[in-house]
Every structure is written in C-alpha cells, then in structure tokens.
Amino acid sequence: MGIVYKAWDLDLDRPVALKMMNPELAQDETFLQRFRAEAKALAQLEHSNIVTVFGFERTEAGLFIVMQYVEGETLAEKIRGRGPLAPGAALPIFKQVLTALAHAHQVGVIHRDIKPGNVMITPQGVVKVMDFGVAKSRHGIDLTQSRDLLGTLPYLPPEQVQGLAKADKLGDIYAAGMTFYEILTARLPFNKHESLYTLAKVIVEEEFPRPDFYNPATPQTLSAVVMKTIAKAPQERYQTAEEVLEACARLESSALFAAPQRARTRRAPQNRRLIASVALLLVLAVFFLLRMISTDRVASNFSSSSLSRSDSAGGVDMKSDTAIASGQNIEEARETPPPQPETGAPTQASPLAEVLNDRARTSEANARQSQTTQPFIAATGKLKIMLQPSGTLSLDGASPVALSGSPYEINLPAKIYKIKLESPGLGFWEETIALTADQTHTITIDFNQSVTFAVASGETWAHVFVDGKPYGQETPCTVTLRPGTHTLELRREGFEAVPLTRNFKENLSEPIEFVLKKTH
C-alpha cells in the first residue's frame, strides 16, 4: 500500500522512516482511508514494541507518515535466513508481539495483519510491530464494513475467512499464534502457496498438525499453547493477549520447558519401572530355564550310542535321529528311510530330528573325523538398547517389552533379528541386525532430538510428503523430522510418485536426490 524510504530529519538530526502512499493508489478513496487510518492508529500507540509515529504530512509529492526508523530485519527475513528458531529464542519474540498487541487492544486498536513480515527485530533483540495499514480503531473507520477481505489470508482466522465475524482481538491472537508457529517450524501448518480457494478450505475445515510434528525440538507444552491460540473456534482460544502471556510465563518457570528430556524421565511413574523390571526378570528366567532344558536333552541324546524307540501313537522310528545326533553312521541313517505310516494316517515328524539333521549336514566333515561328539551349546551375543524417552522393544514381531529410558541389555542366541523400537506419539525405528557370538550390538535412539536434511529433485519441483502426509514444501527444500523410520515421497501431477523409506538418525550433510519420471 505504501513505499517506505529511509530519510534524515534535519531538524532533530536523526534517521526516520518515510512511508509514502503509492501515487497510483492516491486516487482510490478506499486506500486513502486506510492510509489515514494507519496514521491515526499509530498516533494512539506509544509502546516500546510498536513503531513510533512522528507525524502525518501532505506535500506536493503526496501523503506520507514519518515514523521511527528501526535498524534490523523483519521476522520473515530472519526465518528465511536461519530456519526454525529454538524454543528458547522464539518465545521472547512471541511475548514481545503479544505485549504490543495487549497495549494496542487496551487503547481500542486492532492490528488485523499480524505476520512475520510486519514484525521487525533489532540487533539487540527488541521486537517492533509495524504496518497498521489495515488497523481498526474504535475512534476511526471500520473498513470491515466493506466486502474486501483485509489482512493476509494464511494468517486470518476461520471466522473471518467465512465472513462470519468482523476483525477483533481474537483475530489478532490467532494471527500471532500462526506467526509463532512459523517461528518454531519455519513454515505454516499448510502450503501457503496453494490457490486462495484451497487455502480458505484448509483454514476452515482441516485440523493442523502440532508444531512439534515439524520441529521435534519444540516441547509439547509449548505446542499446546500455540495450538490453543490458533484454535478454529474463537471461544476455544485465549481470550486476551494477557492470557497468552500468562501461559508463556508458566512455561518459562516450568522445568519441563527448561529441560524436557530430563523432566519426562523423572516424571515416569515408579510402578512402570517396577513392572518393566519384573517383566525383564521373568523373561530372563524363562529364557535360561528353556536353554538348560534344551541343553540337557541334547546332551542326553549325544551320550547315547544308539536309541531305538517306537512311538505308540504314530509308530515313528527314532533310530535315524539318534544316529545323526551321535555323529555315527550318518550315511546309513540317510540311506535308511523311516517307516511310512499306514495309508490315511497323518505323517508326524520329530522336531528334534529336523533340528539335528540340519546341524549334522552342515558339520558332516567334522563328524567323520571324530567319533567323540560334544554337547551343543548355542552361541550368544549381547543386545544393548539406549532409548529416550521411554518406549517399547519388539524382537521378530514378538510382544513388545517396556523400556524405561535407562540402558537395557539382554543376551540372545547369535542370529539375525528384526528390531522395532517405538516411543508412543513420537515415532518408531525398525532395523534388521546380525547378532554375532560374544559381541555387543548397541542401538541408540533419542526421539527427543531432531534430524535435518535437504531434499532435491534436479531441475524439476515436486510436493514433499512425509509418512503419507503433505509436508507443505516443494523441492528443493529442507526437512526437519524426529529420528526414526520415515517414508519420503515426492508427488507432482504428470510424474510418477517417488517413495523412499529409510532410517533417519543424524543430520545429513548431503541432500537426498530424487529423480522424477513423467507418466506415460
């Protein structure tokens, strides 16, 4: 609506900002009213977090407002240059915006266009809210009586998008919350580059993902505050800027916000730890009991030079099994087939025979060289899990074992295992490992952390999807996720979808490159 120049006040010997109305718009009475409204609105506001207005002048060059010159960058520029801000750095910015809005609302001024582009940050970290070009004053003109949709659509609350309510302080609170969402995640909860119709539909109908979905470093309590400020129903939001400030103050004094990981660990119920410990002891007791029984049976079979037994139910001859188990007459055992059951009777095979046959075939050469066979003892390795916060461990699809967040160790037979670690609400990690004898395999996963990497698709752009949900960015872009197993997918009309499932544990120095192919 206006063009801003840096100028020098010769009388007071200081820099100032001149916001001049675009000459092409000077003939439009509506824009002229908005320009005057901004000057009147700013004149009512005297606050350290609001750009100060010095005067409103009309000259031959046109209309202009003389304002305080602010050295620094807009919040939008800061986000573009640095990406998501840490919660500890983002919260003070949000609080200063809220403090400015609280003052404006007290004197009856509604900003109506809060967004990162209208917030300046000085090198000292002081926030200055500016651009009251569509502001509404209780003493001035209410431009919402026109049919124009004032403000910036991605930051407008649903009730204004639908035309059900005029601009009010709840709309400012919503826009501030959406701005805070963008500070924490470097994006909005939807793709703001969609058509106006699609944007309006999303704002009114769809549920937004929480900020910690896109930036896992965001404490869940802080995400809850953000989500309440952008609730779709006005009555479900904070009703004043002061209420949001009080919620932020409670967060800052909370140990959970200062150290979320340690707080969650300390708050874990003691009975959960006790149950996990008892379950672990039971699992180990059953494991060693079964192992001792198995070893005794195998040793007993190995100590017998021959064993012939007839199963009264199935009539299965165990002689061939005994021969193989003792390491003697292997060829004879192979050549002598077991008696066949009567016609119509189901065939029954000894599980022990099958296991020992497999072992005998793989060690046939050694068995021929030695007539003395030692009892079989399964080789074991150690699996060590370090999972944060608490979660579960599942081996080969078996029932999960609860993990409390402390290091967990277990001895297992040496073989290949499919591991799944999961922390409810945070994510999961799937991995296939080869556990070797007398060695320790360690897996360390911290779902409280975040992983950042770049995604590219050559010279062709595409929409990025994560775990089947739109990420809201187009390639090339930067993606931030929690560690774990994720599926990345690029989609674009006219091109084949490109999925990629992999584990993400640390930041990637090189971008993930996709090759898009056109559909035929």
Please describe what this structure looks like.
By secondary structure, this protein is an alpha+beta fold. Among the domains are: 71-258, Transferase(Phosphotransferase), domain 1 (Orthogonal Bundle), CATH 1.10.510.10; 378-446, Immunoglobulin-like, CATH 2.60.40.10; 451-513, no CATH class. The chain has 16 helices and 23 strands. The protein has helices at residues 29-43, 75-82, 87-106, 158-161, 169-185, 196-205, 211-214, 220-229, 241-252, 255-258, 260-266, 270-303, 319-326, 330-335, 351-362, 364-369; strands at 2-9, 14-21, 53-59, 62-68, 73-74, 109-110, 119-121, 127-129, 136-137, 380-388, 391-395, 401-403, 408-413, 416-423, 427-434, 440-446, 451-456, 463-466, 469-474, 477-481, 484-491, 498-504, 512-513. The strands form seven sheets. A four-stranded antiparallel beta sheet has the order 1-2-4-3, covered by helices on one side. Strands 12-11-14-15 form a four-stranded antiparallel beta sheet. Strands 19-18-21-22 form a four-stranded antiparallel beta sheet, with no helix packed on it. A hairpin with a 4-residue loop joins strand 1 and strand 2.
